[in-house]
Amino acid sequence: MKILVLGGDGYLGWPTAMNLTAHGHEVAVVDNYLRRNICREEDCEPLYEVPNLNSRVRQWKRQSGYKIQIFIGDLCQWDFMETVFRSFEPEAIVHYAEQPSAPYSMLNRNAATLTLKNNLDVTANVIFAVREFSPQAHIVKIGTMGEYGTPNIDIEEGWIDIEHKGRSQKFLYPRQASSLYHTTKIMDTDLLWFYVRMWDLRVTDLMQGPVYGIHTDETNDDPQLLPFFNYDELFGTVLNRFIVQAVADYPLTVFGKGGQTRGYLNIKDTLQCVRLSLEKSADPGELRIFNQLVETFSVNDLAQRVKDAGSGFGLNVQIKSVENPRKEAEDHYYNPAHTGLLELGLEPNYLSEEVLGKMIETVLRHKDNINRDAIFRGVKWA
What we know:
- By secondary structure, the protein is an alpha/beta fold.
- It has one domain: NAD(P)-binding Rossmann-like Domain (Rossmann fold, 3-Layer(aba) Sandwich).
- 38% of the residues lie in helices and 19% in strands.
- The chain has helices at 13-22, 34-41, 53-64, 78-88, 102-105, 109-133, 180-199, 238-247, 267-279, 299-311, 340-344, 353-365; strands at residues 2-6, 26-31, 68-72, 92-95, 138-144, 159-164, 167-172, 202-208, 211-212, 252-255, 261-266, 286-292, 295-298, 319-322.
- The relative contact order is 0.15.
- The model has no long low-confidence stretch (mean pLDDT 97).
């Protein structure tokens, strides 16, 4: 297929582009370097320097022989979106092109406004571009398990059957976001569902849990092909943060009681899930939703695993409970269904001591780059 990866410079976007070309697809990536710019502005640059898209594409071609087309620009601008779609004529679109950080969205009014405008404008433009230029194209949208919140019932896979006063109907599973970022993702789902009903679009919405990891099958330990690896409070996911804190001799920052439980997956599994969703498309007029996770852990579980793995490298890892800057349940029920992607063929990579060890080895090589001041700054929800 001809696949357009929006947000193709990001932590997940770049590895996705390499993986899709390695599996025979023709790929173009689009980005405006928003995440890079925010990281510079907020003094939270990634652990190691990441080449720009032109350099990465050249290196990938040298190593693999596969080409990737590049578009640099702002997808909030309709003229640019039109240029991309007319030039590339995609058969499928992977939509990562959003401000991805919950803490950043809660930082201040400017960050909140940027998050709202970017995330909703890009999603709307994608919908209208598919309608106008590629009406048969399949949209694979990266949502988040955070849309569901932490309800006191099982989380179904996107939909729930309701019986009420003798009648029944299938509805989108209720959403209850825990940050402004997650709220924009709920709005994405609602926009897509509306236009699926209106225009018979074909859409897969992947409710993804927090992702961890650095290496994929395509990176081959080539430092020029590694994805962004943020470890700061704004953009780093929890396990990635804990690994860097362990190496930096910085106590692992467990928020509050540490009972917050979520569904996690290795970056390699994100690539599998996206590719399987693309290759086994949703039908016209279908909003297909998968819960994209492999295992559930509490924050305490992850902290203890990192502590145990660190001891094998002679690291004296300390765990410290800090006042929770977020407004969230610290003890809660959590049981999400996640069978759909397994049925498509997902072969999970589980969180093992070997996986943690390889991450620690990589971070140790870049230990001198760690900016301790960026690790925790206590962005408060309320």
